[in-house]
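Why predict the complex rather than its parts? Because the way molecules touch one another can change local conformation, and only a joint prediction can capture that. The input here totals 1128 residues.
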Amino acid sequence: MDNLLWRSSKWASKLVAMLIACLALCWVAIPFLWAIGNSIKSRSAIFERGAIIPFLQFTPTLDAWKEVLNDPQAINCLFSSALVGVGTTAFVLLIGTPAAYSLARFEFRRVKSKDITLWFLSQRVMPPVVVLSPFYILLAEFGLIDTWIGLILLYSTFNLAFCVVIMRDIFRDVSKDVEEAARMEGASLWQVFWMIALPLSLDGLIVTAFIVFAFCWNEALFASAVTSQHAATMPAFILASRSTRGVDFNFAAVNTLLAIAPPVLMSFFVQRYLARGLSFGAVKG
Amino acid sequence: MSQDHSKDRFEELSAGFLAGRISRRHFIGQAAKLGISAALLSRIVSAQAYAEDGNLMDSSPDYPNEAPITKERIEFLKTKPYKGQTITVLVLKATVGDGLKYWVPKWEEETGGKVNVAEVPIDTLHQQIFSDLQTTHRYDAYMTGAWFYGDFFVPKEPYIIEVGPYLKDPKYPSWSPDDWLPAMKTLYSWQGKVYGVLFDGDCQILYYRRDVLEKAENQQKFKDKVGYDLPNPPKTNKQMFDVANFFTGWDWNGDGQNDWGIALHAKVNEQGFFHFLTLAAPYVCSPNNKYFWFNPDTMKPLINSEGHLRALEDYVKFLPCGPKEAISWTLGQGWNLFLSGQAVLEPTWGDLPTFAQDPKESKVKGKVGATIIPGTTEAYDPIKGQWDKFDLNSVGNVNGGSWHCVISRFSKKKDPTYDFLAFMATKKNAIYNCTHGFTGVQPGMKFEYFPPVGTGKVEEWVEQGWDPEEAKRYLDAYYQNLSLPAQETYLRIPGAAEYWHELDVRVSGVLAGQTQPKAALDDCAQAWERITERYGRDKQKKLYAESFA
Amino acid sequence: METIASVQSKAERGFKYALLAPSVIWIIALTFFPILAAVRYSFANYVLGEGITAYVGFSNYARLLTDSGFWYAIFITVIFVGITVPIEVCIGFVLAWIITIGVPGKKLFRPILTAPLFTMEVAIGYLGVTLFTDQGGLFSTILGALGIHIEWLSTASGGLAAAMILDIWIWTPFVFLMSLATLSAIPNDIFDAAMLEASSHWQVFFHVAIPLAWPVLTVAILSRVLEGLKSFGLPYALTSGGPGTSTQLFSVMADLTTIQFTDFGRGSAMGILYLIMVSIVITFFFKQMRKRID
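Output of the joint prediction:
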């Protein structure tokens, strides 16, 4: 993996690079460690001066963990989050990927495909707070409040644009020569898309899926507004660490750790794809 | 028979009756022998008036989950009346929600019904309740904060139903609104009719460190420095400030760090403004004036009156008596300062003494005193526009959520819903709720207090780990606060949360030193006018008047 | 012109529309109604329980435009984005560069450095309270040991700074990930060749890496600007906009108005105004993007 750039660098620059990397590592790790610390503190130890190192400076307790894990709602919420995340991702890819391919490969008569792409992108400008109430009414009309379907519907709407824009760039990276050759051999358009373009963009597809999933997994505003029990997701559950009695910071820490574990574990598995190099269509000049 | 003796005997008798040990018939007969007038009797007995003579039993071995219980109720329960029915209740995700959930299996076992509990955080509770009332009608009952009430009465036909008719039917669990202290009953009612079923009763009182105020060394120092005897507990706002100020900035607990006079939880959007409302009450409310929020004739805000202004100026002075960061503290952080023994005073809710009993969280068990919020010697009557002098003007408050459930008009299962809510309101269960910290419920019923007022037993509190003296002090102060003749009225009109928020951010701005009190309150009054305009001045005026009735 | 696109057959026309249509219809169907509703509300006086009581023309807008609180919220939101995004872009890109040139242990760095991306803003806000409090918070303890005392949570600037630090913590990995993706797509020999010619490492960084990655960086910056302007969970959980309204970012203000106080009229007007303002600003970005997409 070593390349010329690294080998030819002066030892001083190497040192600086390693130093920066280590600093970044600490910087990223500290809040996680702090969350772990919080999760094993009692309510009062959270705001005790000098209670930083467990055992040495405060007596750790698993009370918060026990309490949260004994709450069946925590498990329900994790399940809802997973289901809604997977459902949304699947749906978004299902209808977004073809659209992205269409925009990447074809030109349209009235509106240029790049303008359609920009239109998709512009969907992310709207602050969600503003359309929340109309969305609530919309969901209520169809009896979809506090249902998984309702959430999937909402999240699909917000993430579809992202999927289309990113996937379009990814398709444009795939060499057209192969597709053209396949066409010459008599493959149908659909076959080209399904059997050539899609498999060639698998890496990008996985990364897109991963990011869409993460967005759904982390969404708190809508989740807390349109769910209450059945379909409540983890972020809604975390928001509820705050109650009439203020915030239970130790519970919040447990919830946080529970909630980040699945995507972080997942990110270790998709690392391979994340690193393979998405150019987002940028470097083709 | 001497007068005194008959009084003792009567108290014993009524305690027995209220606890359900003595039947109604026996009680009336015995009381008549003591020469108690019928009028006086009726005041006590009316509490159970709906129960047919002799029908109310203190408990039933078949149905141990509720007490007292009527014979009709027992018969009714034998049929498992709600078999196959499921009710859905929307509650606050918090201790009060946990408190409600505790009773679900018990009620289900008794009646055969099912309860489905949905929990939402406080940020979205209001929105969820009213969105549901307008569109989906999925819930049979909602847990509501007392300040949501006005919103329920905006439509011609209120969104929620009265529970009065149910109270007359002996087949439902037995509880009585007459057991409420009047200040609390008002919060559960609208225009004299009861809509809410007993659950929580919030109010703010002042908690203080008894051991610190009693220490001779501190008393001497205080006298030398301030010039009068250390008030124990502080009775006026000025005394409270002197105490807070005196104990700030030196190490009175001997842990090597400087300590503080007062613990506050003043974070914006986190109920911090309740501090201001509580402290401001005696500057505005008095036996001469009950209007704190608006002029009832014009709906013009009173919030920038001289009384409110003085209160805010005084409130600001308390800030340096605690850590500066208190302006961004949520409740738990404020309590923590007191519980860890670093502050002498804290005006707050009943959660504080409850947490104080937990040795894991608290260093102050057995050292906590409780008293009503200190009063003032003058109060500004904002309607007449004049300062009135008093020896001591003490004003009670019911600040807080007083969380409880109301039944939706759209519910198709009103009867089982009421049954469940009333089940939690029976005396036995209500006492359980207010003695157990996890329920987040605080006492609002007379019987929850100790004799002579009620029939509570200190043993029940000790069992829950309470220091007996501390429990008594806490309940005494709580009772005294709720039964003060002058009470700060509660804001229960539509948009209450929004009015409060406008006040909240401005008070917080003043605390942070960004604005001056006068400018902030004037600005707040303007913001309030805008809100009133939006809801419609006449409608608000009508609802404001109704909220007192 | 695309080669395939230039060969316009009938089948192709049907095919491309069939692929595109579901997404376009979906978005129009699901966003058209809410946005239309928002526009309608913005001209109305809305009361919970009664619905729209009157149409009030532009008065919701007029009130907002003359409300210093609204402008203040916009102002600090812009400051917030203006400070966090450049820092996130710089740090994220430098880290990606270091990984790309092959610092030892990069397999370990990559997953760890991207982890914050998957935390929830609300949760990090709560965590932030315990990190920054002067009652035993980590930052205060460390800085206190160095003799520095900062009032993080009791002042406007402290609260904003704390929110920014956490925002940078969460979102730098996003830039990092995008930069890494584009840098690793650039063949190594380009850098190697550059290195042989350039006199220093820095020259390669500034004159080769940045220009090559610039197009993707614009996407990253645009995404961060758009998302940053909508920041809600983090500042809400951390300071709730306090003390006073001093850290009340736009989305926090809009949430309070719309969701908690159900003033749909004012809230919708707020959203529409925001949309207009943001649209003007991002037109600049879109022009850049349009060029790139060509």
